[in-house]
Amino acid sequence: MKQRPIRWSVYAGLTPAILIVVFAYIGTIIWTVGISFTDSRMLPVARFAGFNQYVRLFATERWLTSVQNMVIVGVLMIAISLALGFLLAVALDQRIRAEGFLRTIILYPYAMSFIVTGLVWQWILNPTLGIEQTVRGWGFENFRFDWIIQKETAIYCVVLAAVWHAAGLVMAIMLAGLRGIDQDLWKASRIDGIKPWRFYWHIVVPILRPSFISATVLLSLGVVKLYDLVLVLTGGGPGFSSDVPAKFVMDYLFQRQNIGLATAAATTLLITVLCALTPWLYAEYFRAEKRKD
Amino acid sequence: MLQKYRALIGANALALALAQSAFAAEKAEVLHWWTTEAQSKAVKVFADAFNAAGGEWVDNAIVNGDVAKPTGINRIVGGNPPTVMMMNAGKQFGELADQGLLNNLDDVAAAGDWKKSLPADVLEAVSRDGHIYAVPVNLQTPNWLWYNKALFEKFGVQEPKTWEDFFAAADKFQAGGIIPLAFGAQPWQQHQLFNGVLAGAGGRDLYLSIFRDKNPEATKTPEFKRVAETYAKIRSYTDPGTPNRSFNEAASMLTTGKAAMHIMGDWEKGEFTAAGWVAGEDYGCVLGLGQQNFLMDSNVFIMPKGESEAAAKAQALMAEVMLDKDVQVKFNNLKGSMPVRNDVDTSGLDACSKVGLEVLEDPGKQLAGPDWLAGADMLNSLADVVVEYWATPSETPDEFADKYAAVLSEFQE
Lengths: 293, 413
Fold this sequence. Notes:
The complex is a heterodimer. By secondary structure, chain A is mainly α. Chain A is 72% helix and 0% strand. Chain B is an alpha/beta fold. Chain B has 2 domains: 2-140 and 298-343, Periplasmic binding protein-like II (D-Maltodextrin-Binding Protein, domain 2); 144-295 and 364-411, D-Maltodextrin-Binding Protein, domain 2, CATH 3.40.190.10. The A-B interface holds A 41-43, 56, 61-62, 122, 126-129, 146, 148-149, 151, 154, 233-241, 251-258, 261 and B 66, 69-70, 73, 77, 92, 95-96, 99, 185-187, 239-244, 375-377, 380-381, 384, 387-392, 410.
């Protein structure tokens, strides 16, 4: 294989991007990790404190709850959004009337900020204002729908609002994927008399694998940085039962003036995400490339 | 003054620039987060007085203190500080002072004789290692009980003085289909309510041994148990809509007659005024159910170190203006808080502020607020425990006391 000449103009063009990545992203990550080993409080100081912040972090009940909540939201929200988004896309793909109109409506929640989403759902779920009050007003006096004020169920309200927000996006991605499927496959399946659900499950879903992956990556990013929705919807409550790691970090960073603990939490979050994603990314991308060779 | 500068102009050209900037109005950029209607009217009193005294007030209001505070601190650390910045009294600005980023106000305080006109605890709360670093502008307490007078008359209920009275009154309202206590279960509101119960039902000694001495043993006392029980009992007198309700929504439950009482700080008055309510006529106020303690809290302004002489002069002028007797009365009337000076004319204050001032006159009822005694980290860790306790009806007072003690022992010095 002939060595290609180095194209300097390409590197020159990429330099600003590389500099930004190195200094703004990697640089701040290293700084954050560094601060987490000091006993910084309101201002960053360089007094080394070993693993003290990490010891305190893992003794903090609120942190453990928030990590657990991230897992709950992550698993449920991604699974439900993918399923719902896929089903909506399939439904829209049946050459129905007013598709453009419906598509816009379903995608609409995604155009709203998490702040608005949170506020709307806070009112809907509030037992004295929303669904519970309305249904009781219809004459069902004993109707109860108070998930948001129960410690055990508040986090599922977050899942509900997050799914409402994200399902439209998944639908758009899946619909694009469905439109890319070769028309001949449909015809062939019809000639062979394959039942529609089997066709979708065994042929369409595997073909849409890249769409599922992009949607999952987008959704999981949303799960890790989930902050504003929780802040507005439940405020992390009742108690701290619906707290999430990003909110924990922000609280300690700004309100509690404890940069050391906040950066320790952020570092732990980073490591957790890397541990969860690395094997999967490796399998998805690197091994796939090898196969092509 | 003038002649001195004129001489300098003659002396050399470099001084000319300096002198001219000193001739110009003393420009002061003020960073604060008073943005509601009542608050911005109040802050305008400062601005007008400062401009009238020959300064130039450059307003930098940022909505939401949780955003404004880090913004200001970042600018101070980064070497581009605002001339004057709002803060809360207590431990919050301590680290900035330790790092030498704030101007020491000892001279200004001596010139204005702060020792004589300000309460000793307030001076303590604006000092670090014996030096003064902030200008206190008001006094407020978070443990007021506000009540709807019309509802009290309708149900024939007397103004409660103790927690026992409170529960007796609450029972009457509950039986009559009125929500006894308006409440918003946001962490800061829950913690504030708890601290009010701690000072009122638990008493002064318990309060101080927790916040000042950080003594975990204090949670083993019968007084603490009473506090824990009282706090849990309050829960049954609130409605199911409490989670994440803001304080002004809770306040509006009083003005619309849905709820009878609300426990909140002085700033509640701004909400009542906006609804057209008058103190002593439409609403009544009781300070500190149980032991009547005034949990002192104060808004202060810090003066970061700047490059120029002019900034330091503007800062000195600002301190003088903010503590001026007339300005104090005007400002605090609009803000809903109490003047920090004890030598001002109080005839212009509303009925509730007068109640507060009466209590304040007795030094035995002045109690430094939690923020003055402990750092944000400890207080918020305690708040976590309190908030969980409220949200978990199955948690017993003893379990709660153990968790509370665990946080205290973590922060023991």
